[in-house]
Amino acid sequence: MVVLSAARWVRSRLSDRFWRVQEVLKYARHFRGRKNRCYKLAVRSVRRAFVKSTKARREKKRFLRALWITRIEAASLEHGLKYPAFISNLAKSQVELNRKVLADLAIYEPKTFKSLAALAQRRRQEGFLAALGDGKEPEGIFSRIVHHHY
User: Fold this and answer.
1) What is the pTM of this model?
2) Cα gap 49→70, rounded to integer Å
3) What is the mean pLDDT of each run of 10 residues along the chain (150 residues)?
4) Residue 27 CB neighbours (<10 A)
Protein backbone atom coordinates (compact mmCIF):
# COMPACT_ATOMS: atom_id res chain seq x y z
CA MET A 1 0.00 0.00 0.00
CA VAL A 2 1.41 3.40 -1.06
CA VAL A 3 0.56 6.30 1.26
CA LEU A 4 1.15 9.80 -0.08
CA SER A 5 0.79 11.63 3.23
CA ALA A 6 0.22 10.84 6.88
CA ALA A 7 -2.95 12.95 6.98
CA ARG A 8 -4.58 10.98 4.16
CA TRP A 9 -3.59 7.70 5.78
CA VAL A 10 -5.11 8.72 9.12
CA ARG A 11 -8.22 10.07 7.42
CA SER A 12 -8.77 6.85 5.57
CA ARG A 13 -8.48 4.90 8.84
CA LEU A 14 -11.13 6.88 10.75
CA SER A 15 -14.88 6.88 10.21
CA ASP A 16 -16.82 9.53 8.37
CA ARG A 17 -18.78 10.32 11.53
CA PHE A 18 -15.58 11.50 13.23
CA TRP A 19 -14.86 13.98 10.44
CA ARG A 20 -18.45 15.27 10.42
CA VAL A 21 -18.22 15.91 14.17
CA GLN A 22 -14.84 17.62 13.76
CA GLU A 23 -16.29 19.89 11.04
CA VAL A 24 -19.04 21.09 13.39
CA LEU A 25 -16.68 21.49 16.33
CA LYS A 26 -14.29 23.51 14.16
CA TYR A 27 -16.99 26.16 13.71
CA ALA A 28 -17.84 26.03 17.43
CA ARG A 29 -14.30 26.47 18.79
CA HIS A 30 -14.79 30.12 19.78
CA PHE A 31 -18.09 29.51 21.61
CA ARG A 32 -18.20 29.70 25.41
CA GLY A 33 -18.88 26.83 27.77
CA ARG A 34 -19.73 23.28 26.71
CA LYS A 35 -21.00 24.45 23.31
CA ASN A 36 -17.45 24.25 21.94
CA ARG A 37 -16.81 20.71 23.21
CA CYS A 38 -20.08 18.78 23.25
CA TYR A 39 -21.29 17.83 19.79
CA LYS A 40 -24.98 17.85 20.68
CA LEU A 41 -24.79 21.42 21.97
CA ALA A 42 -22.39 22.54 19.26
CA VAL A 43 -24.66 21.42 16.41
CA ARG A 44 -27.50 23.60 17.68
CA SER A 45 -25.26 26.60 18.28
CA VAL A 46 -23.49 26.37 14.93
CA ARG A 47 -26.76 26.03 13.01
CA ARG A 48 -28.17 29.03 14.90
CA ALA A 49 -25.02 31.05 14.20
CA PHE A 50 -25.21 30.27 10.47
CA VAL A 51 -28.89 31.29 10.34
CA LYS A 52 -28.13 34.55 12.12
CA SER A 53 -25.18 35.31 9.86
CA THR A 54 -27.38 34.80 6.79
CA LYS A 55 -30.01 37.20 8.16
CA ALA A 56 -27.30 39.68 9.15
CA ARG A 57 -26.01 39.86 5.58
CA ARG A 58 -29.46 40.98 4.41
CA GLU A 59 -29.84 43.44 7.30
CA LYS A 60 -26.43 44.91 6.56
CA LYS A 61 -27.62 45.92 3.09
CA ARG A 62 -30.69 47.63 4.58
CA PHE A 63 -28.62 49.36 7.23
CA LEU A 64 -26.05 50.69 4.76
CA ARG A 65 -28.75 52.01 2.42
CA ALA A 66 -30.38 53.84 5.35
CA LEU A 67 -26.98 55.26 6.33
CA TRP A 68 -26.31 56.52 2.78
CA ILE A 69 -29.75 58.14 2.63
CA THR A 70 -29.15 59.86 5.97
CA ARG A 71 -25.80 61.22 4.79
CA ILE A 72 -27.22 62.43 1.47
CA GLU A 73 -30.16 64.06 3.25
CA ALA A 74 -27.88 65.90 5.67
CA ALA A 75 -25.65 67.14 2.86
CA SER A 76 -28.54 68.17 0.61
CA LEU A 77 -30.20 70.08 3.46
CA GLU A 78 -27.00 72.14 3.74
CA HIS A 79 -27.64 73.26 0.17
CA GLY A 80 -31.35 73.95 0.70
CA LEU A 81 -32.87 70.79 -0.80
CA LYS A 82 -34.79 68.01 0.89
CA TYR A 83 -33.74 64.46 0.06
CA PRO A 84 -36.72 63.44 -2.15
CA ALA A 85 -36.46 66.63 -4.20
CA PHE A 86 -32.70 66.23 -4.53
CA ILE A 87 -32.88 62.61 -5.74
CA SER A 88 -35.82 63.11 -8.10
CA ASN A 89 -34.30 66.22 -9.70
CA LEU A 90 -30.96 64.48 -10.16
CA ALA A 91 -32.79 61.63 -11.91
CA LYS A 92 -34.66 64.11 -14.12
CA SER A 93 -31.32 65.74 -14.97
CA GLN A 94 -30.00 62.35 -16.17
CA VAL A 95 -27.47 62.02 -13.34
CA GLU A 96 -27.24 58.29 -12.71
CA LEU A 97 -25.24 58.10 -9.49
CA ASN A 98 -26.33 55.58 -6.89
CA ARG A 99 -26.80 56.42 -3.23
CA LYS A 100 -23.47 54.93 -2.16
CA VAL A 101 -21.55 57.17 -4.55
CA LEU A 102 -23.61 60.23 -3.62
CA ALA A 103 -22.93 59.62 0.08
CA ASP A 104 -19.19 59.30 -0.60
CA LEU A 105 -19.25 62.51 -2.65
CA ALA A 106 -21.05 64.30 0.17
CA ILE A 107 -18.30 63.33 2.62
CA TYR A 108 -15.08 63.33 0.60
CA GLU A 109 -15.83 65.75 -2.25
CA PRO A 110 -18.17 68.46 -0.96
CA LYS A 111 -17.51 70.78 -3.94
CA THR A 112 -18.67 68.11 -6.38
CA PHE A 113 -21.73 67.46 -4.24
CA LYS A 114 -22.42 71.20 -4.13
CA SER A 115 -22.41 71.32 -7.94
CA LEU A 116 -24.81 68.36 -8.05
CA ALA A 117 -27.05 70.16 -5.56
CA ALA A 118 -26.89 73.29 -7.74
CA LEU A 119 -27.91 71.22 -10.77
CA ALA A 120 -30.83 69.68 -8.87
CA GLN A 121 -31.86 73.08 -7.54
CA ARG A 122 -31.78 74.61 -11.01
CA ARG A 123 -33.73 71.67 -12.45
CA ARG A 124 -36.28 72.09 -9.71
CA GLN A 125 -36.73 75.79 -10.35
CA GLU A 126 -36.69 75.97 -14.11
CA GLY A 127 -37.65 72.55 -15.37
CA PHE A 128 -35.62 70.21 -17.51
CA LEU A 129 -35.67 72.13 -20.80
CA ALA A 130 -34.81 75.45 -19.19
CA ALA A 131 -32.05 73.89 -17.09
CA LEU A 132 -30.27 72.14 -19.95
CA GLY A 133 -31.81 73.63 -23.10
CA ASP A 134 -29.28 76.44 -23.59
CA GLY A 135 -26.37 74.04 -23.07
CA LYS A 136 -24.94 75.99 -20.14
CA GLU A 137 -24.65 74.11 -16.90
CA PRO A 138 -24.42 75.84 -13.52
CA GLU A 139 -20.95 77.06 -12.61
CA GLY A 140 -18.53 74.27 -11.69
CA ILE A 141 -20.40 71.47 -13.49
CA PHE A 142 -18.86 69.58 -16.35
CA SER A 143 -21.12 67.10 -18.09
CA ARG A 144 -21.71 65.35 -21.34
CA ILE A 145 -25.34 65.75 -22.26
CA VAL A 146 -26.55 62.89 -24.38
CA HIS A 147 -28.76 63.97 -27.27
CA HIS A 148 -30.74 61.15 -28.81
CA HIS A 149 -31.48 61.60 -32.52
CA TYR A 150 -34.31 59.42 -33.74
Assistant:
1) 0.67
2) 30
3) 65 78 94 94 96 96 97 95 93 90 95 93 72 58 58
4) 16
